Amino acid sequence: MVKVKKSDELIIANKELAFQNNEKEKRETELQIPNYARILIEASLDPLFTINPAGKITDMNNASVNITGLSREKLIGTDFFDYFTDPDKARVGYEEIFAKGFISDYPLTIRDHKFTDVLFNGSIYKDQQGNVLGVVVVARDITEQKRTEKELTEARIFAELATAIAEEAQSKAEVTRKIAEDAVKAKQQFLSNMSHEIRTPMNAIIGFTKVLLKTDLSVKQREYLTAIKISGDALIVLINDILDLAKVDAGKMTFEEIPFKLASSISSMLHLFETKIQEKNLKLLIEYDKKIPEVLVGDPVRLHQIILNLVSNAVKFTTRGTITVSVCLLDEDDEKAKVNFSISDTGIGIQENKIANIFDNFQQATSGTSRLYGGTGLGLAIVKQLVEQQDGITNVKSKVDEGSTFSFSLSFKKTKAEAEDINEVMEFDTEIKNIKILVVEDMVLNQLLMKTLLDDFGFECDITANGKIAIEKLKHKSYDIILMDLQMPEMNGFEATEYIRNIMHSNTPIIALTADVTTVDLAKCRAVGMNDYIAKPLDERLLYSKIVSLVKSASKLNIKEENEEIIKMKCIDLKYLNHLTKSNPKLMSEMISLYLEQTPPLIYSMKQSLQIKDWSLLHASVHKMIPSFSIMGISADFEQMAKKIQEYASTQEQTDNILEMVLKLENLCVQACHELEEELLNIRIKQ
After folding, report:
1. pLDDT attached to residue 362
2. What confidence category does residue 408 fall into, taking pLDDT thresholds of 50, 70 and 90?
3. Using alpha carbons only, what angle is made at residue 123 by residues 120 and 127, rounded to the nearest 5 degrees?
4. Which member of 55, 225, 257, 481 has the greatest number of CB atoms within 10 A?
5. What is the pLDDT of residue 81?
């Protein structure tokens, strides 16, 4: 009996222990539920609120705290409706939840620093007995969605409008196009004339001012001349800004793709600011990322223009402290390298409400900026457009009285080719002599200025007043280089250059002296055969550099007549042409005349494309020459040589071998032209 009793007691004790363990687990689970619920609430990236029936906030997640900018303590107990731009609309949505038990995609705008558009989804929640305790709402940010919808709507409206306008204007399209073309031409002509008329006298003013500043002067005289030079430089900057902006607006801005060394390019460019920085007792720091590839492919001239504008601004608006130019590699793959450039200063800074418009045309930080510091507010507008047209991004950060940081990023192609130092300005070398220069310039003041500069360089020069006189000079005397003004009476620079290239068949390097630096005229300079250009007012160091560089290049490319291999035997055989024309003298004359007309421009195009390493143009020029070889009975060996040039130009391999073959091909074609001229004369005599 005792044993049975003890067994019963043990069973009861085990049941009691199991019951207590179950109760303990229940209590622990109940304690964990609030923590688990909080974790779920905070997991939502969208704002979440719980609101009691009186409309007071009872709880929220961290996303709600972030978007309102208020702490949890300050939010609890406040009216939910006060956090929206339309409290009444928020209240209607809240009441609808109680009426229907839920609400979905209810649009509201949160009254935060940026007025965030949201869609609210909400439902009531109850206690265990089924009593309604309040509502829980979640807001989904639809700012990006609304922006996209707006853009799509605008795009659709614009497309419909454009279609309607196009249909309506179809019959008048030709007239409208003509009017537009005339307007563009008129604008371009106005800019061209304005540029020329202002730059031409400014060339003499600034040029002679520089010459005078090199002479012995009193302190006052030097002060006055320096003031004249500064004023002239400021006027030229204004002209450049207006013309550059016009080119960008007209879509005429072009970007080259050439190999260049970024590090040395930036270093040489920043040297321009050394004097000004020293005058203002500023410190210039350069931070350059050595991971950037040494040679990149892009437009170094436009890059200089961007950086010069930004550094110039930094120097202008900084009276003490430091200017820092940082260049770092952002990203890189097998084909491209993305580089970030930033220019920081410790200057006057920009007001926060002005930063958004600082890149607009004619915009400056304050109305007094122009009065105190000068400028037109065009520099940054040009920077922004130059960067964006190269698929780059501009950015600015600034604080008043602390300084500004302007930055931009650009992508450059990578290359294994060597860079040409085309932007490197040579130092004067007194040992470089015996360069004979023909100056073609109609204005007496500019003639005197050019003679003064070239005499300082130690070069020999002759001066003529127009293209017609220059051509007569060239018939009796050879020159190493020609400096050609564009706008002249009787025969302008374009006409003179065309004659020199196409009639005289001269390859003497020609540099355009232009007071008009619009894209149209520069393209025309290249088209007629000019090798380079320099803008007025002249930078004497740049002028010297271009002269020496072109003379050296020409000496490598051109073989002197006494060293040329002259093809003494007759190089044409007209048997096939006789067979082709059935010996019809009229047809033969037409065929020969056609060859004589088309061959000299092709020879020039072939040599010019080789000089500038335009392989596509070289391939095309030689391709047009080949069919005439068999017609004129020229040896098949030369046809094979021409095809070899094409092959090398296409693959850009063994390019060093092309020069010799091009020169041989030129000599052949020149001799063929002479022989065909004699044949043509004989045919006409017989007729």
Report:
1. 45
2. very high
3. 145
4. 481
5. 86
The three-class DSSP label of residue 514 is strand
Q: Does 2 have pLDDT greater than 60?
A: no
Q: CB within 8 A of 325, min separation 6: which ones?
A: 266, 270, 284, 285, 286, 287, 307, 311, 341, 342, 343
Q: Which two three-digit tokens encode residue 613?
A: 């390493």
Spatial distance between the Cα atoms of 507 and 469, rounded to a whole number of angstroms: 18
Query: What's the chain's Rg over C-alpha atoms?
Result: 39
Asked if residue 89 has pLDDT above 60, the reply is yes
Q: What is the 3-state secondary structure (H, E, C) of 591-623?
A: HHHHHHHHHHHHHHHHHHHHHCCCHHHHHHHHH
Which tokens in the block code for residue 172? 């008048």
Q: What whole-number distance in Å separates Cα of residue 400 and Cα of residue 418? A: 44
Rounded-to-integer distance, Cα 563 and Cα 579, Å: 38
Residues 129-141, mean pLDDT to the nearest whole number: 85
What share of residues in the chain are helix, strand, coil (percent, to 5)?
55, 15, 25
Provide the token pair at 665.
Answer: 């091909």
Among candidates 472, 340, 511, 312, which has minimal Cα distance to 411?
Answer: 340
Closest by Cα among 607, 632, 628 to 617: 607
Listing DSSP states for 521-556 in one string gives HHHHHHHHT--EEEESSP-HHHHHHHHHHHHHHHHH
